Amino acid sequence: MEFLQILITGIGQGCVYGLIALGFVLIYKATEIVNFAQGDLMMLGGFSAVTFIGIFGMSYWLGFIFAVLAMGIFGYLLDKFVIRAIIGEPQFAVVILTISLGFIFRAVAGAIWGVDILSLETPFSGEMLNVEGLVISMDNVIVIIGTLLLSVVLFLFFKYSNLGIAIQASSQNQLAAYYMGIPVKKIFSLIWAISAMVAGVAGTLMAPISLVSPEMGFIGIKAFAAAVIGGFGSLPGALLGGLIIGSSEQLAGAYLPGGFQEIAAYLIMFLVLTVKPQGLFAQIHQKKV
Q1: Is residue 286 assigned to a domain?
Q2: Which CATH number do you get for residue 256?
Q3: Domain membership flag for residue 280
């Protein structure tokens, strides 16, 4: 029973890692940019939720929607006015830009909301679900359910919607997509918007559990490890990589000597890269441009 208790907690944490890793993969698949500010977008999503729900007094679900939409608009504008200006520059310059954006986001968050840790009250805060002696926090239950629902929505969006199909076409062959009349630049901005919205969902779901502060964006480092473990081109792999890391961290904290919990993600990433450099669930294909 104790093992299951720890595992479920790890799955809840892993869902958050997986959602942030989804943002990494969405942007990389389309633009070949690794957005090292993805964790900080999650942090901004958390602060947005605190603003709409805690400060403006909106209901939890309405504030949730507004926070996610606000992050979508922010992601779209970020690509249009910042990222697009550096497209075509050396990859190193792009990496430095996204790292710099992370520092800027944290500084701006600290200036606007302060450096104190903020909490977010939800309709299910403090509630527990008891399943035959297995006590599960409702916060973790909501995180797991939210991740499942978002995964289904993204799958249906990319599989059946015209916009989702256009995004996939642009990520596979930018030139062909352009000649077929697909506005590739606008599509890339939409991908950044979707990625920021996913980060907003992760930040809002994570806020009641870990609380909100400018430093919470550093969780993106472990989410990056999750994306690498799953395979940087695989959306399902990103989620599974997050679950692997989240579960491993909690199990390491319970059954291994102190210190292993903090390095579990990086040890697993090292082992995976040694055995299978493409990641566990990599989708091998050549990108055409």
Answers
A1: no
A2: 1.10.3470
A3: no
Domain with 253, as residue range(s), is 2-275
Q: Residue 21: CB partners within 8 Å, gap ≥ 6?
A: 223, 224, 226, 227, 230, 238, 239, 241, 242
Nearest Cα neighbor of 97 from 79, 113, 112, 109 is 79
Cα(268)–Cα(257) distance, rounded to whole angstroms?
A: 17
- Please classify residue 179 by burial: count the beta carbons closer than 10 Å to its beta carbon, then call 0-12 exposed, 13-18 middle and 19+ buried: exposed
**What per-residue confidence (pLDDT) applies to 64?**
97
pLDDT per residue as tens digits for the range 59-108:
999 999 999 999 999 999 999 999 988 877 888 888 999 999 999 999 99
Residue type, 91: Q
pLDDT per position as a tens digit, 197-240: 999 999 999 998 888 999 999 999 999 999 999 988 788 999 99
Q: Do the beta carbons of residue 28 and residue 50 sit within 8 Å?
A: no
**Number of domains forming the structure of the chain:** 1
Residues 6+ apart with CB under 8 A from 81: none
Please give the torsion angle defined by the CA atoms of residues 154, 224, 13 and 270, in that order, rounded to the nearest 10 degrees: 130
Per the domain annotation, does 284 fall within a domain? no
CA distance 140 to 89: 42
Answer whether residue 176 is part of any domain. Answer: yes
pLDDT at 270 over 70: yes
Give the global pTM. Answer: 0.91
